[in-house]
């Protein structure tokens, strides 16, 4: 019914008897038209206006045309029919239909309509017509047509219109005619052309020109123009950040973002979208977390797009748990969001989890895209799931109807090569409908190196050298393949070939982000402005690591005699094992605790000479002796209690304030704690040496060596004691027999 009306010129039916035109009826129809929510409602109202003669109301017809042409439920076929049924379309109607086709997939039709408009003697293009026409010219790369429109702009006297100027410049920029764009820019946005009225339009011209250089990949010219801008808006900063990120200059993108913050320009939604890819590539997790916190604090809506960017950032920076948490908290998820989390799981080799997310995604009715399957196949490649990858690849083609791209074939070739199916991988490359690029051939050549298949490796290398003769990676892989097989003559030939062709291997680099500044390093790189400080710090860290290792070894060597003494003192092996385990785990805390327990076990008679009884009491070997006073045991209890509390406090303080001891910046606190523990343990060993030696001079000499050299002295002393034993003497005499014991007893 509707099509029959739209296919014919609309002629208003003659008014019948009693018919009266009503302006209120036209007004109500216009209001109903504006309230349409679907194409079906619009068609019903359109049909009603035709039947009732309301089609003659210019305002109503213009609104119907606008909805058919530019609403979210647009239908250009209906819009064209409505437009051509209008008896005398005004300039607004021409602008509407031209704009609709300029924004469509067929911008050529917009140019055709503009030509028809120029032939209409009742209308003339205005400032709202030209931008749509220029957009259509850019869409079809019609530089010739664009220049003609430029001439018409001059003829119509619109050359001073800032809105049209920006669209003219954008047309030249998108069409990659930068010479004409630069001429237009210099005439209208020079540094001496600033005034209050044109300040905003002038800023737009600067932004468009910067974007033009970025589109051409000329980042130096873009940055030079950006630095010369008399003023910068958030759009200017976003353009520069996005340009650096899109062209692979991730470090520079983060640097511009940092300058933006220094300039007190508040980042917005688009800023976060622009800088997050650079943050992801650099692995700057701390900066990514700050961006996430900034979005939440400033109530920037984390929708599917920004949420996907944050998920990708967390996954690439290594925090896949936070990526999963963020994914679960998003209220709405589209295929891009699912692709982000599946890709993140693939990066971390969680192939099973990625497959589970794919199945859940399909259950919810979300159709996977080609990007989804790239992530799935990549995950299977990392995990070596050959059968699952084959199944997904086949389903992608047969069930989802997705034509494989080079990325899909690359994942399959990489997986088959890693798994040893080299013949199948080579066959897949040769039979694929697309021409394989150097990345796919490199993956296959790398697999040949892993599995030592020189036959296929030579064929692949030959093809790769023809495809990318200046790529150093091909020669390095082939050289490594020959080296793995021991063919050093072939290795020399490949290296000589690289030298003759002046091909050098690109050095690898690493980077770190500190306070928003990216620091990049190469092998043997001395170009960093703080290179001397960096090397000095590395030497200091290496020295601390060596000292810490030596101290730890020394500490556990000194534990040996204490452990032997504990084993001798305890009457059951269970008690001995328990105390020795505590000694190994807690060090001097256990030593002090054990000595205090021994002190509290002494009888009043034994307390008069506590050290003698602590060292000798075992299995009835206690001498009832008379001594001087009770003060020595009190002093010993206080001494070892203080030492134990000191070590425990040091250990707890280090744990609570500094955390793990394996972080670089915490070497000094943990080294201090270990040294304290070491010297507390020395106390027990020094008492043993003082008891063993016949004279105080030799005892003092050995204790000094013990304090200076630690475990070396302990081992030396034990070896000397062992050499003093005869074959009939038991081993424990090394610890307990002493020629000085009786001498010292007489002097007590």
UniProtKB/TrEMBL annotation:
Keywords: Membrane, Repeat, Transmembrane, Transmembrane helix. PPR repeats lie at residues 90-124, 202-232, 233-267, 334-368, 369-404. PROSITE patterns: PPR (PS51375). It comes from the Eukaryota. One of its GO terms (molecular function) is mRNA binding. One of its GO terms (biological process) is RNA modification. The keyword Electron transport does not apply. The chain crosses the membrane at residues 547-568, 577-597, 634-656, 668-691, 697-720. PANTHER family: PENTATRICOPEPTIDE REPEAT-CONTAINING PROTEIN. Belongs to the PPR family. PCMP-H subfamily. This is Chlororespiratory reduction 4. It comes from Aristolochia fimbriata. The lineage of its organism: Eukaryota, Viridiplantae, Streptophyta, Embryophyta, Tracheophyta.
């Amino acid at each position: 019914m509707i099509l029959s009306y739209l296919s014919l010129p609309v002629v208003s039916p003659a008014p019948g008897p009693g018919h009266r035109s009503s302006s209120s009826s036209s007004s109500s129809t216009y209001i109903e038209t504006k309230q349409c929510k679907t194409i079906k409602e619009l068609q019903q109202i359109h049909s009603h206006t035709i039947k009732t003669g309301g089609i003659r109301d210019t305002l109503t017809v213009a609104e119907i045309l606008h909805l058919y042409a530019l609403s979210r439920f647009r239908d250009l076929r209906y819009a064209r029919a409505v437009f051509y049924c209008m008896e005398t379309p005004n300039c607004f109607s021409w602008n509407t239909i031209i704009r609709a086709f300029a924004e469509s997939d067929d911008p050529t039709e917009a140019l055709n309509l503009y030509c028809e408009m120029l032939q209409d003697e009742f209308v003339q293009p205005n400032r709202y017509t030209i931008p749509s026409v220029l957009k259509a010219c850019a869409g079809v790369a019609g530089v010739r047509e664009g220049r003609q429109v430029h001439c018409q702009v001059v003829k119509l006297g619109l050359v001073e219109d800032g809105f049209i100027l920006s669209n003219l410049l954008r047309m030249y920029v998108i069409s990659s005619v930068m010479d004409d764009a630069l001429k237009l820019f210099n005439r209208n946005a020079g540094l001496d052309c600033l005034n209050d009225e044109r300040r905003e339009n002038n800023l737009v011209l600067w932004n468009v020109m910067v974007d033009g250089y970025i589109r051409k990949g000329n980042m130096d010219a873009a940055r030079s123009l950006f630095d010369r801008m008399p003023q910068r808006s958030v759009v200017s900063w976003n353009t520069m950040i996005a340009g650096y990120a899109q062209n692979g200059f991730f470090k520079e993108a983060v640097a511009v973002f940092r300058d933006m913050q220094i300039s007190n320009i508040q980042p917005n939604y688009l800023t976060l979208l622009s800088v997050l890819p650079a943050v992801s590539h650099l692995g700057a997790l701390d900066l990514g977390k700050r961006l996430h916190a900034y979005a939440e604090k400033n109530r920037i809506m984390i929708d599917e797009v920004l949420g996907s960017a944050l998920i990708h950032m967390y996954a690439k920076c290594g925090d896949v748990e936070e990526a999963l948490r963020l994914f679960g908290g998003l209220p709405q998820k589209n295929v891009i969001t699912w692709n982000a989390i599946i890709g993140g799981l693939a990066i971390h080799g969680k192939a099973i989890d990625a497959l589970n997310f794919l199945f859940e995604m399909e259950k919810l009715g979300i159709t996977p895209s080609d990007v989804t399957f790239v992530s799935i196949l990549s995950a299977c490649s990392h995990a070596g799931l050959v059968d699952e990858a084959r199944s997904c690849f086949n389903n992608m083609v047969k069930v989802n109807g997705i034509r494989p791209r080079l990325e899909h074939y690359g994942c399959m070739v990489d997986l088959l090569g890693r798994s040893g199916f080299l013949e199948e991988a080579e066959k897949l490359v040769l039979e694929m409908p697309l021409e394989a690029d150097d990345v796919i051939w490199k993956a296959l050549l790398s697999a040949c190196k892993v599995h030592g298949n020189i036959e296929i490796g030579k064929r692949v290398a030959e093809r790769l050298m023809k495809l990318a003769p200046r790529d150093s990676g091909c020669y390095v892989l082939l050289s490594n393949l020959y080296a793995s097989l021991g063919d050093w003559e072939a290795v020399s030939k490949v290296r000589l070939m690289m030298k003759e062709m002046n091909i050098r291997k690109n050095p690898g680099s690493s980077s770190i982000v500190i306070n928003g500044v990216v620091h990049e390093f190469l092998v043997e790189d001395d170009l960093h402005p703080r290179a001397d400080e960096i090397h000095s710090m590395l030497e200091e860290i290496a020295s601390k690591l060596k000292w810490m290792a030596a101290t730890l070894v020394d500490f556990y060597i000194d534990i040996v005699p204490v452990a032997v003494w504990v084993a001798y003192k305890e009457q059951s092996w269970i008690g001995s094992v328990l105390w020795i385990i505590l000694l190994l785990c807690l060090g001097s805390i256990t030593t002090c605790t054990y000595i205090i327990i021994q002190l509290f076990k002494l009888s009043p008679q034994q307390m008069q000479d506590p050290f003698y009884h602590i060292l000798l009491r075992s299995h009835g070997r206690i001498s009832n002796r008379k001594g001087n006073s009770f003060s020595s045991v009190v002093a010993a209890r206080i001494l070892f209690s203080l030492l134990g509390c000191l070590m425990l406090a040091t250990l707890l303080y280090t744990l609570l304030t500094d955390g793990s001891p394996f972080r670089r910046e915490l070497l000094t606190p943990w080294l201090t704690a270990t040294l304290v523990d070491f010297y507390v343990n020395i106390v027990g060993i020094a008492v043993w040496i003082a008891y063993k030696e016949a004279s105080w001079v030799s005892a003092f000499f050995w204790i000094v060596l013990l304090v200076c050299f630690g475990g070396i002295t302990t081992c030396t002393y034990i070896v000397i004691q062992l050499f003093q034993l005869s074959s009939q003497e038991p081993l424990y005499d090394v610890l307990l027999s002493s020629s000085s014991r009786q001498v010292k007893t007489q002097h007590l």
